[in-house]
Amino acid sequence: MAQLRDDRMNFPQSGELHVFIPDIHLITSARRIEGGFKYGANNLDLLEAVVRSLREFRLGAAPAGEVVVYQIGDLFDLWRQVDGLDPNASAASAIQNDHASLLKALRDPDLNAQFLLGNHDYDLYRFPNFDAWQRSFVIAPSVMLLHGDVFDWVEKLPDELQNLVLFIFNANSAGTAGLDNMRPLNQQSRRKRKFRDFIQNQAPAPTGRWRSPEGGDGNWNVQVEGVAPPEMLLYLKEAREKCAAANSQFGSRLKVAVIGHTHHARIAVRDTPEEFFALMDCGAWIENCNTADDLTPRPNAQIAALGANEARIYQLSPRG
Amino acid sequence: MKYWWTVAALGLATVGCAVRYPALIAVREQQFRSHDTPVALPLTPDGRTEVAHFLEFGGNRTGRNPVPDPRAEGHRQALDALAQAGNLTVRADLASSDFCAIAAPLCTAAPLFRKRLAVTQVIDARNRAPEVPEPIGVCDDEYCWVFHHENQRLTQLVVMRSTRRAKP
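Output (structure tokens, whole complex):
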């Protein structure tokens, strides 16, 4: 779907491959009917097969190479699963039980996937069985990984968010006080929406033209600021500004942001003589996308990978 | 007097807005759990005897003397119920903290479990990672019953002496 190879990403490690699985938004089958949701997660059998393959890939690559798999938030959709009437209920457990096979694969200790808390499963931080889940990762030396919902807040809740950089870097500190403090903001961004028809994109997300894995090498479908339409550059500016602020505040060298959240897979860059910055939005496993040469909606089923100064996004579909 | 109402209202508002953390069950030391490997459900006569023996000795596997069980009848009913396959059907896909909403047939046969909280956060430090599916626990006044499940059926059980003991 998209490929960017550029040494200016400053992520030269050739012995590491970082694989990102974006938003899935699981709810139980019963809840989907009860809640009247007109859509659901896409191709879960395929996703499970991918996850199991990644486990084998990871084990096979070790010890010479390291494969790190991330699920980058909104694995569960707690917002759609419950209406908040039973605060002691574990909605995630119910969802997990309903998708036990997939969840067993994703939470297999041999896969050792790293999980981010998204906005729809933010509240998992309160549950001991999800203790290891984080709000962000820095993949040294140059990559910031986060769900991406904080960039909504920048626009919608500017007054409440005095210092996003501090939040991003401090929300993972030991204990849950930081997450408790930010929880009202997350709840506010929900704004009583029911999400019956869609979460992010009612229309298929445009993804440019695709090419087959054998269809060539080199940069493909890279959305360049100043050339690409605005919708293909969503959150590039916000991510770049926040990473620049972090670099100046903490001495980091962030050049790439990896996010999910928007359900719109794309690679966008700012490429000027003074500055290079890349945003990889890994897409989703819910809602639809289309291509520039075929507007037929296709179910989002994307994974992304990063290593050796190269970023790629793949759209997957079941065999046959 | 009106100040008391204000204080009470403020207190209620604070409690209402407070972030709630879920209940959890910690797997106890070997001495205080009925089995190292959970016993299969439905209970066989041998499995039932093992759990009954554990309860008769006050939830102490190395105990030397039987301990009077004020809930003996409730525990007997529970063990009888757990020996019947028909009582083991659950709705593990329900997001409810009411154990009986999840395990309705078991609650019908064993009143001991009624009006109890379903606990999904069962912490077992022996595991490499949290279990999937998460076990479902329910605590009576003296014991926590930790059920493993699969395909909407309870499949295995460990009973542990609760860390919250009723006062003598």
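The first strand of chain A starts at residue 2 and ends at 5.
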